[in-house]
Design a protein that fits this description.
113 residues; mainly alpha; 434 Repressor (Amino-terminal Domain); Helix-turn-helix domain-containing protein
């Protein structure tokens, strides 16, 4: 899957303008180096960043936790701004629901013994 660092740069710049934040303020809020903010905001160096860095940047910009990661992957963002669940997360949720259901059935059986 292609990564759209230019879209991330656009999202960061737009949000910084909206909130009237400087690069230094964003770096401080995100707990990242000023150089990292510069590189991301201006798409200067396309390198793999950790999910933690993008999450910290999202939080620093008062965006939902996975917002910039979703922008990077080209995932649609619903009206509430939350990244859409990937197929893998949806699958895990279904499996968890199944395990929960089975556990509750076992607890019910044990309670009646």
């Amino acid at each position: 899957m292609a990564k759209d660092w230019a879209a991330v740069a656009d999202a960061i710049s737009a949000r910084m303008d909206e909130l009237e934040l400087t690069q230094q303020q964003v770096a401080s809020r995100a707990g990242v180096a000023l150089q990292t903010v510069r590189e991301l905001q201006h798409n200067l160096v396309e390198r793999n960043r950790t999910a933690r860095t993008l999450e910290a940047m999202s939080a620093a910009l008062d965006l939902p936790r996975g917002y910039l990661g979703a922008v990077l992957r080209g995932q649609p963002l619903p009206a509430d701004g939350q990244p859409a669940d990937s197929a893998a997360i949806a699958d895990l949720r279904a499996k968890l629901a199944n395990v929960t259901e089975r556990l509750e059935a076992l607890e019910e059986r044990v309670a009646h013994e």
